């Protein structure tokens, strides 16, 4: 397996560079989860980092690679999102996702 030294930004891992295994496409995973054991023996906390572009450089503006940015909320976003999929329901949506005509 190939790996790439990938920097981490924000959170407890800020400034560290770790070797991250690359997938079949040559990119690191979209999310990187780090379990941190609890000192009191409770359930471990999980730090979540999201993959973002490292930047663009040179005359051609090619992407230089990837880095991981800290996601403090750490929502699980494992669902596939196809172009024809329905969007997630917003805070004011009804259970079936349609607009409520009673609101006017």
What features would you describe in this structure?
This protein has 104 residues and is mostly beta strands. It contains no helices and seven strands. The chain has a five-stranded mixed beta sheet, with no helix packed on it. It is globular and about 50 Å long. The protein starts with a strand and ends in a 34-residue tail after the last strand. 5% of the residues are buried.
Unreliable spans: none
Cα(first) to Cα(last) distance is: 58 Å
The neighbouring-strand order within the major sheet is: 2-1-7-4-3
Q: Which term fits the overall shape? A: globular
**Category from helices, strands and their pairing:** mainly beta
Q: Indicate the proportion of strand residues.
A: 25-35%
Helix count equals 0
Overall helicity: under 10%
Biggest sheet character? 5 strands, mixed
Query: How many strands in all?
Result: 7
Radius of gyration (Å): 19 Å
The secondary-structure element order is: EEEEEEE
Arithmetic mean pLDDT = 82
């Amino acid at each position: 397996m190939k790996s790439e030294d990938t920097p981490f930004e924000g959170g407890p891992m800020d400034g560290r560079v770790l070797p991250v295994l690359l997938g079949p496409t040559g990119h690191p995973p979209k999310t990187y989860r780090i379990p941190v054991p609890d000192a009191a023996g409770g359930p471990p906390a999980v730090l979540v980092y999201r993959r973002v572009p490292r930047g663009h450089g040179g005359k051609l503006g090619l992407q230089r690679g990837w880095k991981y940015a800290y996601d403090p909320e750490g929502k699980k976003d494992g669902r596939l999102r196809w172009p024809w999929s329905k969007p997630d329901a917003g805070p004011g949506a009804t259970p079936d996702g349609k607009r409520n005509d009673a609101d006017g």
